[in-house]
């Protein structure tokens, strides 16, 4: 239940950002009105996207960044030749996708696949699962993500752009800078601060205060209903009420709400959601014809048992990533978890590391729009992205992330969790 309200309140937070220009204000303040090189903009963009995706789910981060990315595209098209503008637009959009996906593996709430990892570990009673919590996740994920962020920036800067394009000086004149003196803008920033503070405190308290396990049945599903889930539910209801209640004084004596119901649908990337639906439809067809099960069952033949752990994890990560390019990451995770758990036991690998490998690799898919929700939303929401460049750079990024993830799974994770 806690995850449900993270997603619900996180979506409302993304709508507040769009309504009051919080993301744009953040980047305007970062640039402080000065010209900077385009390669520095890419570094700021991938870092900011990753940090945001560690706080809220990565697909909500993508929704939050879309207005800024589209405004940046318009600015580039006004100031540069069409070919240069398209290359610069592609680089900025793709690096934002990379940041969202990488930030998604940086925290437990960053991607739905992370929650599936914990669920699979619980179902299979995997040794070491009790050591995974909100803070312990950061212990290994931060260095993992930091190296991948640097790799993504170098790849986007030197693979996609020419020397002249990298050095292009850029200002952000098209971005809307939220007026900090406006009452509603100030309240939106306070809502953001309250949201972040609550969920961090909520996670920390779970580490130090143990509560009895409780469950409730809802539509035939057994859901956690501990004290922490009740507190999260209460916060979610209060947050939603304060966002939609007309309690803030606007012009004159009339009181207004921070958000209207229509704000939840305005400026949503219709094409982006179309790609998400397309990914779901393709996943449904693949599942109907049992293709994922066939692929998962043939993992054992693809992974020779005499290989070293690094090579085994590299093969596992890369096969998972490539499969995710054609299916959604949640579908791949759900199908691969039982097979990989059995495979890990047969190959004498720590099952927890193997499950982490599948879940994390399924979020690190960078080639195609349908691979992850963040890819779909940004590709569908920003015009004139070069699909050819996205596929080529994404394939290289898949290789880099699979290799680095394999090193972590074979060396760091077993040492960190004592597996």
What can you see in these coordinates?
The chain has helices at 2-20, 22-31, 38-55, 58-79, 82-104, 112-123, 134-160, 163-166, 183-208, 227-244, 270-288, 291-297, 299-302, 309-326, 329-346, 351-363, 373-381, 387-417, and strands at 36-37, 169-170, 215-218, 221-224, 248-249, 255-256. The strands form three sheets. It has a two-stranded antiparallel sheet with strand order 1-2. A two-stranded antiparallel ribbon has the order 3-4. The chain has a two-stranded antiparallel sheet with strand order 5-6. The longest helix has 31 residues, at 387-417. β3 (215-218) and β4 (221-224) form a beta hairpin. It contains 18 helices and six strands. It is globular. 71% of the residues lie in helices and 4% in strands. The two termini are 29 Å apart. It is mainly alpha-helical and 419 residues long. α5 packs antiparallel against α7 (134-160) and α16 (351-363) packs antiparallel against α18.
């Amino acid at each position: 239940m806690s995850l449900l309200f993270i997603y619900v309140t996180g979506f409302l937070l993304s709508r507040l950002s769009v309504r009051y220009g919080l993301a744009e204000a953040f980047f305007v303040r970062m640039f402080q009105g000065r010209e900077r090189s385009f390669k520095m903009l890419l570094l700021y963009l991938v870092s900011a996207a990753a940090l945001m995706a560690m706080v809220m789910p990565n697909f909500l981060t993508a929704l939050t960044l879309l207005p800024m990315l589209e405004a940046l595209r318009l600015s580039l098209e006004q100031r540069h030749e069409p070919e240069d503008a398209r290359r610069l637009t592609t680089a900025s959009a793709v690096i934002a996708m990379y940041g969202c996906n990488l930030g998604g593996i940086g925290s437990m709430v960053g991607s739905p696949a992370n929650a599936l990892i914990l669920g699979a570990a619980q179902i299979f009673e995997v040794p070491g699962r009790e050591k995974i919590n909100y803070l312990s996740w950061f212990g290994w994920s931060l260095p993992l993500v930091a190296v991948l962020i640097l790799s993504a920036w170098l790849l986007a800067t030197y693979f996609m752009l020419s020397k002249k394009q990298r050095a292009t000086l850029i200002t952000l004149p098209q971005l809307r800078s939220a007026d900090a003196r406006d009452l509603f803008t100030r309240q939106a920033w306070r809502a953001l601060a309250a949201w972040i503070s609550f969920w961090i405190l909520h996670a920390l308290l779970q580490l130090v205060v143990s509560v009895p396990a409780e469950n409730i049945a809802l539509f035939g599903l057994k859901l956690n209903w501990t004290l922490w889930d009740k507190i999260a539910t209460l916060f979610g209801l209060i947050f939603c009420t304060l966002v939609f209640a007309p309690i803030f004084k606007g012009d004159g004596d009339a009181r207004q709400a921070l958000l209207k119901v229509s704000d939840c649908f305005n400026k949503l990337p219709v094409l982006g959601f179309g790609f998400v639906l397309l990914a779901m439809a393709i996943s449904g067809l693949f599942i109907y014809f049992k293709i994922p099960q066939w692929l998962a069952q043939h993992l054992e033949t693809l992974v020779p048992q005499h290989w070293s752990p690094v090579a085994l994890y590299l093969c596992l990560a890369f096969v998972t990533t490539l499969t995710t390019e054609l299916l959604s990451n949640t579908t791949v995770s759900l199908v691969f978890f039982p097979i990989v758990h059995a495979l890990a036991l047969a190959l004498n690998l720590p099952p927890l590391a193997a499950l982490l490998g599948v879940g994390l690799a399924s979020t690190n898919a960078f080639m195609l729009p349908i691979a992850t929700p963040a890819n779909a939303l940004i590709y569908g929401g920003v015009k004139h992205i070069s699909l050819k460049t996205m596929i080529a750079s994404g394939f290289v990024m898949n290789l880099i992330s699979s290799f680095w993830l394999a090193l972590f799974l074979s060396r760091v994770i077993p040492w960190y969790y004592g597996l």
